[in-house]
Specification:
Elements (H helix, E strand, L loop, with lengths): L5 E3 L8 H9 L29 E4 L2 E4 L1 H11 L7 H23 L8 H23 L17 H16 L8 H11 L2 H6 L12 H10 L5 E5 L2 E5 L2
Antiparallel strand pairs: 1-2, 2-3, 4-5
Helix pairs in contact: 1-2, 1-5, 3-4, 3-5, 5-6
């Protein structure tokens, strides 16, 4: 039990979800934590470097900052390429995907009158800017390669599948017109560790709904709301 990573976050997706995906794909069991509205109070005294989560306890360290955590885990579990060139490609792919995943992640926080506009914007960017890049990259699959980088599973493949599924939650037919990405989705989803993560009862969290938004506000003591307006984050009264 002591060797299992311990995740500290609220009981929702947020910044921790990509970390859960990476650990699950690597076949790593985590210590389940039950986080309640006061869990941030348990970290007073310097445990959290910037007094914010996510935090992962692993290898005797308290890791913070999402991208730092993800890179550490990817390197530790051989999901970060064989050399610096492959790492550079992985970084380019995942950083591009982060732009899209952030838009989708913050979409439930849209101003009520602008949700439809924001959804249209997300889908337009997904289908005209982001997915065409990965559809083009996926052409290499016809030349004997099954993965984005180095012909083995990497953080980039895991991140792409996560974002595809997030986009499909916004619009189930979003991959229409991207046949290679449809094949990619099916192939990566059948990797045993990922297939297990996609089953009910795993560490995977559901999309943010209205009740979850209220929980987030209570946990992080928001006095003012973070809403999405014209695809940029603004502050607005609740």
């Amino acid at each position: 039990m002591a060797g299992k990573p311990k995740l500290h976050y609220f009981n929702g997706r947020g910044r921790m979800e990509s970390i859960r995906w990476l650990l699950a794909a690597a076949g790593v069991e985590v210590r389940r934590t039950v986080n309640n509205p006061t869990f941030l109070c348990t970290f007073k005294g310097g445990t959290l470097m910037y007094e914010q989560v996510p935090m992962v306890e692993i290898d005797g360290m308290n890791l913070v900052e999402t991208r730092a955590i993800l890179r550490y885990l990817a390197a530790k579990y051989n999901l970060y390429g064989r050399n610096i060139q492959e790492q550079a490609w992985i970084d380019m792919y995942v950083e591009g995907l982060k732009d899209l995943s952030d838009m989708i992640m913050f979409f439930p926080l849209s101003l009520p009158g602008e949700k439809e506009m924001n959804l249209e914007y997300i889908l337009e960017r997904a289908t005209t800017k982001f997915f065409p890049v990965y559809e083009k990259v996926s052409d290499k699959f016809y030349h004997g390669q099954d993965f984005l980088v180095g012909n083995r599973l990497s953080w980039a493949d895991i991140q792409l599948l996560e974002v595809i599924l997030m986009a499909e939650e916004c619009k189930p037919s979003v991959l229409t017109g991207f046949p290679l990405l449809q094949e990619f989705k099916a192939r990566i989803s059948y990797i045993p560790t990922i297939q297990k993560f996609l089953q009910p009862g795993s560490q995977r969290k559901p999309p943010l709904d209205e009740s979850s938004i209220e929980s987030v506000k209570n946990i992080f003591k928001f006095e003012r709301g973070m809403f999405l307006k014209n695809m940029s984050t603004i502050v607005a009264e609740y």
